[in-house]
Design a protein that fits this description.
Elements: E1 3-6, H1 13-19, E2 25-28, H2 56-59, H3 63-79, E3 86-91, H4 95-104, E4 110-114
Parallel strand pairs: 1-2, 3-4
Length: about 120
């Protein structure tokens, strides 16, 4: 299922999570079961990507999907649909400087490490 709407809670919570497709969404009109903490967190289900920290596998589940998504990104770059900002280029011998610049919070755009630069 793309979306699960749960108005019951405890008795249907696990079944709702199990019914979700990868990257599916779940919405509860009651809090999920379990101990309550200051910030309520939903337990992570094997196929549910919580929106606060998705990983690559949440966006590309097999090599064919990864290849197709990468092709889209490169096409968007070529067409100018997706724009990138390069904030700096560093040779490998300046990797420490690049890291320090990144940690300083004063950089914008991507910092690139390039051989022979």
């Amino acid at each position: 299922m793309d979306v699960v709407y749960d108005g019951i809670g405890k008795d249907t919570f696990e079944a709702g999570l199990a019914a979700l497709r990868p990257r599916g969404m779940s919405s509860w009109s009651v809090p999920p079961p379990g101990p309550r903490h200051r910030s309520t967190r939903v337990p992570r289900a094997p196929r549910l990507a919580l929106p606060h920290r998705p990983t690559l596998v949440d966006h590309a589940t097999d090599p064919e999907e990864l290849t197709a998504r990468a092709a889209d990104v490169f096409r968007w770059l070529r067409e100018g649909v997706l724009k990138t900002a390069i904030g700096g280029c560093y040779g490998f011998d300046r990797a420490g400087e690049a890291h320090a610049d990144l940690q300083s919070g004063t950089t914008t755009g991507k910092l690139l490490l390039q051989p022979g630069h």
